[in-house]
Amino acid sequence: MKNVDIEIYISNLISFFENNPNDLISLIGDVQKQEFYEKLREKSEKNFSEGNDFVLTRNQIVEIVVELKIPQIKNEKKSEMDRIIQKTKFGEIILN
Question: pLDDT of 18-27, one tens digit each?
Fold first, then answer.
C-alpha cells in the first residue's frame, strides 16, 4: 500500500517541473522525464520503508540524475576517444 504523503510529495514535484520546464531541463538535460519521475518515486518510497524521511535531499536527486545519465556519459567518452585516436593506413595515431 502506498503512502499518501509520498504521493502528494511526488505529485507536487511533478507539478513544479511541469510548470517550470526550464528548471527540469537544466536539472536533467535530455534524460526522459518519466524515468526521472519514476526514480524519484522509488527513492522516496525506499527512504520511507527504511524509516527515513520520504522527502528527497539534494544529493539524492543528483544521484538519480547521474544514474540516468551514466549510459550517455559513457557514449560521449567513447566518441571523444575516437577523435583523439586517428586511424590511418599506417596505423593508429594518437593526437596528444
Answer: 999 888 888 8
